[in-house]
Amino acid sequence: MFLPHIEVVTPLRQNKDSGVLIKFPPAIKQTIIKSVLQILLDKKSPQDLLGSPFAIKWAMECTGQSFALSLDNHETISQGIQLYKRWLSGKSLPPQFGSQKQKYYRDIFGHFSLLFQLRKGINNNLAQTHVKLCLQVIEIFQKIGSKDEGYLDEESWEHLLFVVIGVCDNLLSQEASRIEPTLTQELTPHLLKVVFDLWLQSGTQKHKMWERFENAFIKWRHQLQTIIQWSATTFGLMSRVINVLYGKHEGTEDILILLPPTSKAKFLPSKIKLTDEKLIFFWQKTLDLLGDPNQIQNPEIFFQAMSGIRDLVTLFLKIGTRKKYDIKYEQEYLPDQPDGNSILHIFGKSLFTAVQLARPGFEEGTECCYSILCNIFMTSQTKPFLESYITRFYESLIRAFENEKTSGRSICAILCNTTKIFSTDLPGIHILVPFYLDIIERIVVKKTLPPNYSVRVENLRKSCIEIILTLVCLPRYLTDLAIQSVRTSLKLENLKIKTFEDFKPFLMQILLKGFSNENDARNACFLLYSMGIYLLETINDLPGISSLVILTCQNFLCNPKSTQLKWPISVSLTALHLLNLIADKTEIINTQSNVTIPNLISSLSKLINNYINEPSILPQEDMETLVCTIFTVIDSYIMQSQWIYSHPKVLIQIMKSIELSIRDPVVGKTKKKQTKTFQSIKIKDAAMYLFHRLFKEVGNFPIATGPSTKSTTINETTIRDAFGLNEDEFNQLSTFLMIKRSRLMTIFEEPEISKKSENEKEEEEEEQRIIEKEEEEEETNDEKKLIILIRDINGKYAWRVRFRSLPLSKKLIPQSQWEKHIWNGEPRPPVYKQEMLLSQEQAHEQEIEFGLDGTILDYFSVDRELQHNCLTHVMGIQHRLEEVYRFIEEETALTETKLQRTKQIKRDYSWITEKRTIKKNNINDDDDDEDDDDLEKNQNEIEMEKNVINKNKGKSDKKNAMLYTFNNSRLFLANLGLIKLDGEDYVDIIEPNRNFRKSLGLLDKFPERITHTCSVFYIGPGQNRLTNPKAIYQNQQGSKDFQTFLTELGWIVDLQTHEGFKGGLDPELTGKYTPYYSNYSLELIFHVSTMIKFKEDPIDNKKNFLSKNRVVVVWVDDKRLFDPKLIKLGKNTLFIIIKPHHTGLFYITIENYLTSVIYGPLLSNTLLSRRLLAELVRKTIILNEHQLAISERSLVEPLRYRMGNLKAINNRFKINLDTTRFYTKLFSKK
């Protein structure tokens, strides 16, 4: 006795001997059933009440008929449920029940099905009562399934499964929804859950049973909850299958069936137990239940079915990509994830059919199919796809692009899920380029969105930008390969896109116009960085592109009506970073346009003035960050070459910005309110840093050579050793001064006897050769030499200064030319005209400056009044002219001392600026012989003195040399204006004791530039696995491409001789060589895993050493996706992952836990050419290392450090003297 509908869908048949009370009048039937149930449920009833099988059969006949009563008798029905529940649980069983227990169980299951008979014409209250009664039975079924194995035999399990299938089929039919909608709606989720749970718990593997289930399930697909339950069950089974096939780190260890959060029904997850042998069978059978989803006629249900398939495919695609692995199981075998062909074998037919049909009204489901296919083909594969699948995939994409009106949602799915399509290894992918460019142009430039688009506009535009990043360098690979014409609305003159090389300007126009149309800040940053990458790639091919990009950034930053102030400061900073990115291309840009860079720097300087004069524009913190970054950009451009000297107006504008930034706030008034300029310590430091850079390093720093030290390597010790002096002797010849508490000056007076180095000897020999070529040679016995070391906030500098006293010539003016020197009717004083001394050409070569009247102004400052008085008395008396000239010569020698030669000492680069003296000429023919005799006599005396000096080297020479009591140093300070009566607070004298020398050593050791470190890893083929993470640290060398990349990343330096920043590397412990890079503002050293070689415990030491850096470059020569867990680093670590591409390009991905942050200038999913790879990776390292250091507050600024140390040295070692003693100390050492 059971529900009649069960016979329709199952092989079960009614027992003709049952159903005795069916034809009884309702009233009598109700009375009999009620009386029987009351007796059976009464605890006082005798136990042998049902002592025979016949009695049991009669009692069950009455109880079974209770479930067919009208709902008005719901109490009686509830009693029948309680009786059967008690018997099924093994309580109060009749004595004869145990011998035929399985048969009685089957009868009970059938009797329960009668309760699910549809009742017509009942009210809502009775309908809710019916639901509650049915839920009690469903709960009983659920508990039976969780009983221990052996509770039901195979026949009883089959009977129960057929009963629940019949009940479910009865309620899920479309007719049931019309007859009793409340019951159908409320019970469907519960019944479906019971059906799937019982089917799995039964463990049946009979194909006929599964055929019955599949046939019934096909008829249930019109119910949304059916597909939801199928998806949840299949997902739970597949998770367990993956766990069995791919190890315990994948999938789940149990079969957990949990409905999605979007489901209206809320159940606790079902936990099913199955043996591994049965698991695969059940998963396959459950998967096949769905049949062909394209036959589903309801769009919502079709979408739900495809969503379930998407979840299953995602499970496959995520194998091997989980982040939480237990590394201690290093030897456990982790196979590769299933290849795309295997996934398409399972789901491909349904997916390709769905996108091919593209049924109207089913757009949401079709969109889901496209996203599934795109995800499959975009996932990294260990095996190539079959050509048949690739062909169908390309056809599907082209069909969607060509039918945009009916495929709007599908196009969105394609763009969002194929952002890296042109970086994959799919053969023939270039045929899709014109279709992508067409749709990208309309979305990014024209802002024409696909109809019925299903994603946020900003996300869709972002996907288009990411696709462009994979196309940036593609023309370099495809070059002259023909391309189909692209439909475009951009007005590009003479643009005919026939090959891939032709669409370079087209891509840049998309980026430029897209930026002007962008309303999302994050996308604006992506567009700016994309423009920077594309500019570097095409700067030599498209000369006008650089000016367009710079002008775009300039207009955005400087235009007050732009969206700059509406967007976060990150967009403005990105624009400045883009300008900084291309700063080292200044010379190329200037050759293309000589006004672009000057206009940019002038505009940025004015922008600084605007921000400082109007501090209310931005919050203070944003203002400081923005202005300091602008100063950095200006700094980058003026250091690239000496173009700034040919643009004085730009220099004036820069100086105005510097002045405005360092001065105190100025209060001003406008028509509406009182204003006050902005002041900030950070901005002041940035301005002062630019000021020092402008005057100390522009044109004086050899950028292209990559120096390891910015300051001179000369110090007090090297000077002392060069002259063979001890500490006391060196101090006697030196003085130490602190100028304005920020500039430490060591002045050393060279003794006449010194140990000359080979370089100095060569320089002096060269100088002697130059002097010998001149017509006459001047004696220079009076020359004094100083070596000056200067330490300030920027570094350390060394200068060598020479002093000479210069005599005058004795050339006379012929009498025939006297009348030319009559001035206002009176004899004019003779002046030293150029024709008297040397030719005009010689004067130009010797850089002598002449006044307007022909007088030599550069070397002579003779008392003109004295000349006039003397010559007035002797006019016309020629024989006295010689005496007058001799008198003038003596006066000039006493009053004029000229700094003749200065030489800056540098390492490997130096230059000399000097002006030659005017040679002495013998003019008076009468006294030639006498003068020659005197000259010969003086020369002999000089030679005798030299011989005496050479014979008395040693202590006596040093003693004589140190008889100079700082006269020349005093003279040098006085000429510089550092000695003045009101300047004792300006200059401090420093005591050179032992602690002072230690402080100098510490100051010199600290880098004068910002320093960064970066780790570089090489992962070879087969090493990208968690099973053996130590293999990465055992690599001694990488591939040829990797080795080339290292040489382009920086200069390979020998750490034993390297004098710059070493980043903790020690040639004795970590290896001898490493890549190093530096410029005028920073030093970057790389810790390369293949070049670091620890002698003791190499793997652990190398692992600990490399794990300390914030930015890590990983070169992956393996097809598997890189897992950051291979390298144990901090959460803020930024991974720049480089993977060689089959095209010869390189695929870049960037990973970090902080996914909301945009890391530039390199962006993830970018294809780069070799010529850009090392440069952009290095610039990305520098920018992000700097930003991460700032965020962690670990950035040490050399300028502030040196300033603080100089002040500390001054406070600790200065000699406190009153005015008298201060100047006495400066005058003499004694």
UniProtKB/TrEMBL annotation:
UniProt xrefs under InterPro entries: RALGAPB (IPR039930), Rap/Ran-GAP_sf (IPR035974), Rap/Ran_GAP_dom (IPR000331), RGPA/RALGAPB_N (IPR046859)
Superkingdom of origin organism: Eukaryota
Presence of the UniProt keyword DNA-binding in the record: no
Domain Rap-GAP: 1000-1209
Annotated segments matching region Disordered: 754-777
Pfam families per UniProt: RALGAPB_N, Rap_GAP
Keyword Transport: no
Phylogenetic placement of the source organism: Eukaryota, Metamonada, Anaeramoebidae, Anaeramoeba
Record key words, sorted: GTPase activation
Organism the protein comes from: Anaeramoeba flamelloides
Comp. bias (Acidic residues): 760-777
Protein name as catalogued: Rap-GAP domain-containing protein
